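Q: I have six molecules that I believe assemble together. Could you output structure tokens for the complex as a whole instead of separate predictions?
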Amino acid sequence: MTDSNLDRSAAQKPFRRLLLTGAAGNLGKQLRGALAAWADVVRVSDIAPLGEVSEHEEASVVDLADAAAVHALLEGVDAVVHLGGISVEAPFEDLLEANIRGLYNLYSAAQKQGVKRVIYASSNHAVGFHPVTSVVDTDAPLRPDTLYGVTKCFGESLSRYYFDRFGLETVCLRIGSSFEQPRNPRMLVTYLSYRDFIELVRCSLFTNRVGHAIIYGVSDNRISWVDNKKAAFLGFRPQDSSAQFEHLFPASAPHTQFDDPTQRFQGGPFVLAGPMEPKR
Amino acid sequence: MTDSNLDRSAAQKPFRRLLLTGAAGNLGKQLRGALAAWADVVRVSDIAPLGEVSEHEEASVVDLADAAAVHALLEGVDAVVHLGGISVEAPFEDLLEANIRGLYNLYSAAQKQGVKRVIYASSNHAVGFHPVTSVVDTDAPLRPDTLYGVTKCFGESLSRYYFDRFGLETVCLRIGSSFEQPRNPRMLVTYLSYRDFIELVRCSLFTNRVGHAIIYGVSDNRISWVDNKKAAFLGFRPQDSSAQFEHLFPASAPHTQFDDPTQRFQGGPFVLAGPMEPKR
Amino acid sequence: MTDSNLDRSAAQKPFRRLLLTGAAGNLGKQLRGALAAWADVVRVSDIAPLGEVSEHEEASVVDLADAAAVHALLEGVDAVVHLGGISVEAPFEDLLEANIRGLYNLYSAAQKQGVKRVIYASSNHAVGFHPVTSVVDTDAPLRPDTLYGVTKCFGESLSRYYFDRFGLETVCLRIGSSFEQPRNPRMLVTYLSYRDFIELVRCSLFTNRVGHAIIYGVSDNRISWVDNKKAAFLGFRPQDSSAQFEHLFPASAPHTQFDDPTQRFQGGPFVLAGPMEPKR
Amino acid sequence: MTDSNLDRSAAQKPFRRLLLTGAAGNLGKQLRGALAAWADVVRVSDIAPLGEVSEHEEASVVDLADAAAVHALLEGVDAVVHLGGISVEAPFEDLLEANIRGLYNLYSAAQKQGVKRVIYASSNHAVGFHPVTSVVDTDAPLRPDTLYGVTKCFGESLSRYYFDRFGLETVCLRIGSSFEQPRNPRMLVTYLSYRDFIELVRCSLFTNRVGHAIIYGVSDNRISWVDNKKAAFLGFRPQDSSAQFEHLFPASAPHTQFDDPTQRFQGGPFVLAGPMEPKR
Amino acid sequence: MTDSNLDRSAAQKPFRRLLLTGAAGNLGKQLRGALAAWADVVRVSDIAPLGEVSEHEEASVVDLADAAAVHALLEGVDAVVHLGGISVEAPFEDLLEANIRGLYNLYSAAQKQGVKRVIYASSNHAVGFHPVTSVVDTDAPLRPDTLYGVTKCFGESLSRYYFDRFGLETVCLRIGSSFEQPRNPRMLVTYLSYRDFIELVRCSLFTNRVGHAIIYGVSDNRISWVDNKKAAFLGFRPQDSSAQFEHLFPASAPHTQFDDPTQRFQGGPFVLAGPMEPKR
Amino acid sequence: MTDSNLDRSAAQKPFRRLLLTGAAGNLGKQLRGALAAWADVVRVSDIAPLGEVSEHEEASVVDLADAAAVHALLEGVDAVVHLGGISVEAPFEDLLEANIRGLYNLYSAAQKQGVKRVIYASSNHAVGFHPVTSVVDTDAPLRPDTLYGVTKCFGESLSRYYFDRFGLETVCLRIGSSFEQPRNPRMLVTYLSYRDFIELVRCSLFTNRVGHAIIYGVSDNRISWVDNKKAAFLGFRPQDSSAQFEHLFPASAPHTQFDDPTQRFQGGPFVLAGPMEPKR
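A: Yes, here they are, computed for all six components at once.
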């Protein structure tokens, strides 16, 4: 459309409208501000309240399991950053609604609405049953460590299908531990600073072609269990490292319970977290 | 139990009780007889009527989406051959109930009931978006060609989780086209004779350790798109070939529509089959 | 065209017109008869006289270095079996005309005339500098053993380009030693029976999609230096073996000149054959 | 020779005589000065005028297609930096003379004159038909994106042959875009600064053994389509990056024509540049 | 030497003198007769008595730990089949003498005496700690399952050194279970018939160049844990299979002790056999 | 033990007792001070005199070939840094005692005394027969360049066995050239600064799980023949580089004796050093 292109050029922003799901969550909050610089309109969505809404924002409280609502949510959207859904282990029923049915609704709507690209928050828990004495690249066999991790594998397969079938592009971000700072020794390895997280989303949105890509979301930490070399075309170069936090967890002799699965596998405590019984 | 071991020894059959789901389907019917030789009791199950029930059989009409029924179904079972669920493209809602919720019910029950092994009917449609000019092995990246294929990827991830978490073993059979004979030229490549199918299940049940294994279910056809070398520990050596049926599809010059996706990808017509709209 | 399709159906042959270059050579003679069964018209071509011409044949003596003649030669052709050019080491000038300029003429004409597929006689001498103590697959790095081998590498690159650029398909046959019988111990390894050669061409012509494929042309000999597993989609299953000729070369203790390059590399005597001085 | 060794020691320069072909071109001009520090005599050559000739230089206007002239050119040379020939898409006839016949002349002469090493300007267009969503290493299959790229593949094969056959070493530099600064967004990925180019040549000349090596010539840009890890023995560590030029090409939403081949493949606009018709 | 060549020609046997160590053992006895056909003189050796000595044989009782005796033993020998040493788990002291010091003596003597090739009885116990749910090829990481297996790894490294340093060729045979017939279910997988064993030695002796090769010694059994594709240049095609013995071990449900290491690893009972205490 | 844990907490040091063998050698001296910060007690051992003993140290002159002495040496030890044994080419008899029998004594004692981890000084000479034009990762095939290198291969196999059999962890450090500064051009590639060496040991001791790991001990030098990517879980990030010493070895034209094995292989002069004759 010549008209809207004219407007956009005046606005100096590359995207007309970006959708951010899970906008009320920890990472959603980090990203909400950054997106303002990249799009004329930022549509924010969550199942939880979204707080104060800026002038450039459109806010929408939506349950991802509600197909009609999700189709409306995707209307007029150029690209989606999908952080919505459940991001920890939970009873299967809950995961099924949020991460399986909800994700299908999102992709079905995105395809029908002509959305070009989804940035999908997958997780390192899709491969958490690889041992801590190995380094996995983005082609490593899936080894989910929870039912939550299984739903992330589902998301990677579903998005692959929408790319192969319709050309709808996705970047799957296998995010590690993105908090202010690592909370335990394991997070020294999986730490992703907020700054690096935002840069990772930026690379995923602006790289001209991404196809269906998988990339680990970790900062440039000293110890690494992952290898992003096959995703170098995305241009993600982390600027931070957990090294500054190593003093918080003084060196100790290696843990003495050799067979403790929470120490043996990359997923850490997640490997024993599931399956959870349904809530009454 | 000493008593039951005594009984089994007298019965001369290696398994006490095998469960066959999807027993009323095309392949279920082929297998039903064969299982009698391997187990004292064969529990057969389907959502459809199961026909005449033999003396050594226990029949049970069950909807896999009914968790309580599935838990009852798994009681006292040594191993499962799981052919149940939907095996073609279908509306997502239907696939969700049968192939996702249903499969979770099956594994959840199997783990709680102490079942040792599941033979899971996955499908070559989990990798159907690989081109026909490539050969995929059992570690090839997942490329589902339908939503149905996506649910088969889900099943492979879920069963991997139950193995890594609980040691519950699974063999995923990526079955090609198992009919009396190939029905079109593509099936010359994907053909699995009934005899080879039964042998594949036999290998999967009797190999002493299988861990979490993936294997393609195809006969020794002239043209092959798959490579089972990493599954050689299962000992599956197909005896049949589609060569005897090649005369049914006389040689023709290569298809002239070069970009036709049903000709370019291993999934054939499946690659355009989905997603299907929900039935009203 | 409806008309010609009608005609072809009456003729019961899958191709309307096949072109065979190098038809007067050793392998061309083997193939000339076989092609009659696959095409209504077989256009045969060589720089040398073509002998008696059958009713279904069109004969044309052409120098491949003559662009205009080659463009005329390709007119109305469905597919080409290109055995033409020089198939042994020769002065660079000669190779340049026949195997480089000539091949460019062929592909340029084929693309412009709408030809769908070329079966290209490459050679195991494109990889002849791999040691005899290794096994190379169809992705192995190129290691030409002669300037002749270098021109075969050129042909593989040129045909790759025409496929990536225009979708013109090619099967590169890295033919070993195709004679009545092996002439020395090395040929026990590289032997390709005439029957297997014809079958290899048949597979290459009739497989529905081949993209740009590379395959070694060897029979099922006891010792093998090559591995065709990545070309299994072509369905070539050799029926013959050099085993029946092993008695011609009685076992002897290994050759005592350890560093003799003609014994160390797969190319055998070729590795010392070039470069040849131009003829006066 | 004891005498000349004495001389060279006095001169404090590691090489006695280096030959630079293509010395009048863009990169040739960059390199001409640098070579002075490394050799007593720098022989510069081009088909175009060579400008002012320094005291330590020997200038020679030569057409590479002229075998006798090339043989004379190589006399007394220790090593060659071969930038000569055509470096963009051109009619096949022209490429044949400059990049095929010319290159053969160069290697034939180098071998006969006892030259020890050639630094050969190959190109990333030898692999330009790999998609921009992949990362290629130095063993990746050849995928030329032009007839020009096909001639670079020829050069890599020819030089491999001369190494395997005669021990004449070559480093193939798959040079990206070496200009003052990137001229379009694609060149942010393929940019090679002049300083890094000179360092790349220095590493290639001075590494004690190089065998037949292939290395990508790119600076340490943020986005990368290539991986030089197998060439780490050459010690090339780029000092520059295109990051300083990213502001020249403001971020925009991804290009909307999804199937545009110039956006899908690493070769960019080259993938549609050829084949070119001969000039009249 | 012209003279001896003349003699050998008259004798019609390819080798002048072969040495067989371990000739009094199980496999040595199988091979002793076969070697007569391949060499004018067969020198047989063991630490145990060698029984009746044929006319074409030279018998020598030698302790491999005796360097001088071993040097004498190798004199005038063309090639060695080295079955000597300890072939089961044993106290380290014993293994050190027979399999480490003894093997060094053998290679040191072979090199000094100009022997061209050694056929070395390595063992699948060099890789016995790979799981039974994997397939290992000849490049798989070493995973010895006993101190005995560690000494076989030593032998593979030592022989590699003698090849790289002196060009002394070795074929390492990773022999499975070579008996009249399998003695337990595991041996159905590792079975090597005597006929196939002799053929394996024949291939290893007569292949013109072997370099330093590793190959698994197993028949064409239904279940396989190993992959010899990289050793296809040796031409070993087993003729036998353990399938004829499967009836000896009737099918049973998989073993119920999931974590039993003797069931989980390819080495079977060997994985718990060591280390053994020294004998008093 | 609650008591000793109390004590250790007071002492603020992560290990109670570390053993350093080879403490009187070049690298042992570097490490001796560093260990004081990590353990309450540092037990130092060598076959040579150990000099002044600090308050926190226990000194013990021990011949590793003396089994009883080694068993006593390992008593009460948490972890071992094993630098002992011979670290250059030597007569086989000497290597056998120090590096084979001695190492077995160490592991046998460590396992019996309940030691949890060994840091084992392996060597790049375990892979020294790889060419200088290749880059080896930690899974590269073993290519020892000396009998010394063969004993390092033995150590890597033996320690693998103790890990697979008993869970005794080992990090194999393939140390390059660790001196004050490089002594020749080759050492510019293999240089490991003392500071980086100490950091490498620190990483190996303190990483929570190491399993059986292999890592190259080199600083971040410009030229690299090795690749530690599969050992990234150890977190070793070298801080130093040999670049500061490059001026000591002025650039020269490549060495002119092309076939000189000391120039062709990574092991440098070691490749011709052995085997050495026994000392009288």
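A: One point stands out. The CA atoms of residues 1 and 124 of chain B lie 40 Å apart.
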